[in-house]
Design goal:
Elements: H1 30-40, E1 47-51, H2 58-69, E2 76-80, H3 81-84, E3 100-104, H4 113-129, E4 132-137, H5 149-154, E5 159-162, H6 168-181, H7 188-197, H8 202-219, H9 225-232
Parallel strand pairs: 1-4, 1-5, 2-3, 3-4
């Protein structure tokens, strides 16, 4: 089964347009990014498991994989379990026929017997089809608290990566890179101000950049420290 665009399950679970490899500062995660790009193209490991704390970029990377699959004609589905777990594991039915499935936040269903069994059977079905599965969670497979032994085993079937957090200097460069992608020019002084006064979580910083971008366009003003204080109250 192939489609011209990444497969979208109902409920309009969309991909952030800027969640791409070009917008992910890969220092310290070069091998991980190379492996995910290969997986997006149907090469390398059939199963990949990535994990890391809040804000390190797991969600960004899974969505980037889906975007990367599109131009090579591979169908891809993105499933954020923290948002969709209430729908039950039946949402996985048929998704094994996609070329690539990315399941985000699997820790959200750890300890849920019905969901664990659903994931276990999905692993088996997608393996039979020979398609690619990438999973993200907040902890390593054996530290998730999975109750079903067979599922715990399957989570470690492929290659496992810990997404490395950025240090402050690297975050500074990442902030400037993402700002530049929006057409914003951030001096070192402005970037350091954000780093020291806003959340250090890269997800929060990304949303803050969106806010500043919109405010800058609306006010037709450059992003300076006084402007940031005015818009955000920092």
């Amino acid at each position: 089964m192939t489609t011209d665009h990444p497969f979208q399950i109902p409920l309009s679970v969309g991909l952030r347009d800027d969640a791409r490899f070009e917008n992910f500062y890969a220092q310290g995660n070069e091998l991980l990014c190379a492996s995910l790009k290969a997986a997006a193209c149907g090469q390398g490991e059939q199963f990949v498991y990535i994990w890391g704390g809040a804000g390190v970029g797991c969600t960004h990377l899974l969505q980037a994989v889906c975007h990367e699959a599109e131009p090579v004609g591979r169908s891809a589905g993105y499933i954020p379990l923290d948002e969709l777990k209430h729908l039950g594991s039946g949402i996985l039915e048929g998704m094994e026929f996609l070329d690539l499935v990315c399941i985000d936040g699997v820790d959200a269903v750890a300890g849920d017997k019905v969901w664990e069994e659903g994931l276990f059977h999905f692993f088996n079905r997608i393996r039979e089809q020979g398609n690619t599965l990438i999973i993200a969670a907040s902890a390593a497979p054996r530290q998730l608290g999975i109750l079903l032994p067979d599922l715990a085993s399957r989570l470690s079937w492929g290659i496992v990566f810990q997404v490395q957090a950025l240090d402050d200097e690297t975050k500074l460069k990442a902030i400037q890179m993402r700002a530049s992608a929006r057409g914003l020019e951030f001096s070192d002084e402005v970037a350091r101000f954000l780093l020291h006064h806003a959340s250090r979580n890269m997800n929060d910083l990304t949303f803050l950049l969106d806010t500043l971008d919109q405010a800058s366009l609306s006010a037709k003003r450059k992003v300076t420290i006084p402007f940031i204080k005015e818009v955000t109250g920092l």
